[in-house]
Amino acid sequence: GAVVSQHPSRVICKSGTSVKIECRSLDFQATTMFWYRQFPKQSLMLMATSNEGSKATYEQGVEKDKFLINHASLTLSTLTVTSAHPEDSSFYICSAIAGTSTFIDTQYFGPGTRLTVL
Amino acid sequence: TQLLEQSPQFLSIQEGENLTVYCNSSSVFSSLQWYRQEPGEGPVLLVTVVTGGEVKKLKRLTFQFGDARKDSSLHITAAQPGDTGLYLCAGPKGAQKLVFGQGTRLTINP
To answer: Least CB-CB distance to A32: which of B44, B50, B96?
Structure first.
């Protein structure tokens, strides 16, 4: 149980275009989803927190107009990188909280999406 | 600001050796988690420690939470090539968020 999927797993796009990444909780309802980015050989950096039906909360230094997040349902959150540039190339990972944990709120991570902007 | 510092950042050892990875902070955490991440994949939760002084074992992996809940360690006995990966510690930051250490990239050579 508690499987999170991401689509696509890899995407290559031209500079200036927009790219949408989907994050789905497959067997549970996710009250909260998170978006992280990870540069090569580095750790995960939280970009934003996404709650179903409300606006995402962005971490300091993350441009909300560039990284659009939509959490339209309890099983789907999307991250759109608008007007992508080569410096946006990174590994984007989402996670989801089930909200039914009997322990601390465990985050279940997706497999990640490798974005390459040419 | 709650920061988690991991050491070493890189470790390359031979199969069969033992190793310890550390995760330290100047702040007290209510719990700490350890994840392993393989290239091109998301992190996978290995363990959560919540009680100061707690020791948890997962096969050849032993996790310890410091008495003061400011640090944790991961000890691997008789390392195998399959243990290769990025090991991340993480702790809660505010409501539901996680803060990650910078990671320890472990390579086990056959």
So the answer is: B96
